[in-house]
Structure formats: structure tokens, C-alpha cells
Write a structure and sequence with these properties.
Length: 192
């Protein structure tokens, strides 16, 4: 009987040893193919998990950098993290800005050395099937506004993640949502 690989269980080896040599070799080769397929699949899964973790880390670094740059009033770095065709949506219904429009709003603050500080926590990042688009939601703490929520989309362009859309919102607790809605309606009607 030919040499048996160490990974073949003893019970299988006993059965195989009673078979004609050609049948025995067929089963050994089959077991080797199965093992190679399993190992290849395992390697692929590990690679995919590793790639996903690396992408999530990169997206988190970009988002953390967005917040850090804003807090430091570092306009050059801040806007370099956005795609040229990005959109920023603020807390007011009128605040839907292209990057150029958002710069017009932000630069007077940044030029004075004042930005805005939001401390992110509880972030969730999701990816498209091809791994080139990510979307997220995060809660943020701000001294003036309290808890806010950021949501948005990033796209991987030429190997770099860029913010395509960022939406800052103020979550309203359900217990006071009616009162807040009434205040908004009053402002819309012109009454304060």
C-alpha cells in the first residue's frame, strides 16, 4: 500500500488499504482536492475579512479626520477629504450645499481659527458589494447642540476614500417631537 498522507483519518486509511491500488489512489487524490478546495476557500474568506477590516479602518480614519480638521479649523485638510462633487447637508432645511457653497459658509469661521467640534461615537459603516462605496451613521456629541447624528456616503477614488455626502442632523426625542414640530411650523409661517 502506498504512503498515506497524515491528514487521512486512520479509519479511512484501513478501508483504503483494502482497495485495489487504482481505486485507493482515486480516493486519496479526491481527498487531496477536497482539502485544497477547503484551504483555498478558507484563504479567500480570510482575505475578504482582512480587506473589509482594512477598508473599515480607512473609512473611520477619514471620518475621524473630518471631525479633527474641523475642530482645528484646518480648512485645507478638511476640504481635501471631500470629493469635488460632494454635498454637505446641515441641520437647517435650507442647508444643502455643494463643496464650493459649503466652503463659502465655513471659510469665515476657519479663517478666524474657529471650527466646530463634534466628538463621534457609536459609528456604523457599511460597504457596497464591490467595496468601493461606504455609507455610515454616527452619533456625535457637541457642546452647543448636545447629541447629533451624522450620516453619509464615501467613495473610494484612485485608492483614497472621499466623502461624497455628509448630513448632520439633530435627533429629536419622540417625547418632544410634537412640540418641536409645532415650533418649526410656527417659524415657517413667520411667527416666532
Amino acid at each position: 500500500m502506498p504512503f498515506l498522507p497524515a491528514w487521512i483519518p486512520v479509519s479511512v486509511a484501513i478501508v483504503l488499504s483494502a482497495m485495489p491500488n487504482s481505486l485507493y489512489m482515486f480516493h486519496v487524490k479526491r481527498q487531496e482536492r477536497i482539502m485544497k478546495t477547503l484551504l483555498s476557500t478558507l484563504f479567500l474568506v480570510i482575505s475578504m475579512i482582512s480587506t473589509c477590516q482594512a477598508s473599515e479602518k480607512a473609512v473611520n480614519e477619514v471620518l475621524d479626520s473630518v471631525h479633527h480638521s474641523a475642530a482645528k479649523a484646518n480648512a485645507e485638510h478638511y476640504f481635501s477629504l471631500f470629493s469635488a462633487d460632494a454635498v454637505f447637508i446641515g441641520t437647517d432645511a435650507s442647508e444643502v450645499w455643494t463643496v464650493s457653497e459649503f466652503k463659502d459658509y465655513a471659510m469665515p469661521h476657519f479663517n478666524k481659527g474657529t471650527g466646530w467640534t463634534y466628538h463621534p461615537y457609536n459609528r456604523h459603516v457599511y460597504f457596497s458589494d464591490d467595496g468601493d462605496v461606504a455609507w455610515f451613521d454616527e452619533l456625535l456629541r457637541n457642546d452647543k447642540l448636545g447629541i447629533t447624528r451624522g450620516t453619509g456616503v464615501l467613495e473610494k477614488k484612485e485608492g483614497n476614500w472621499k466623502v461624497m455626502q455628509y448630513h448632520l442632523a439633530i435627533p429629536v426625542p419622540n417625547a418632544i417631537a410634537g412640540d418641536v414640530a409645532d415650533q418649526i411650523k410656527a417659524i415657517e409661517k413667520g411667527g416666532h
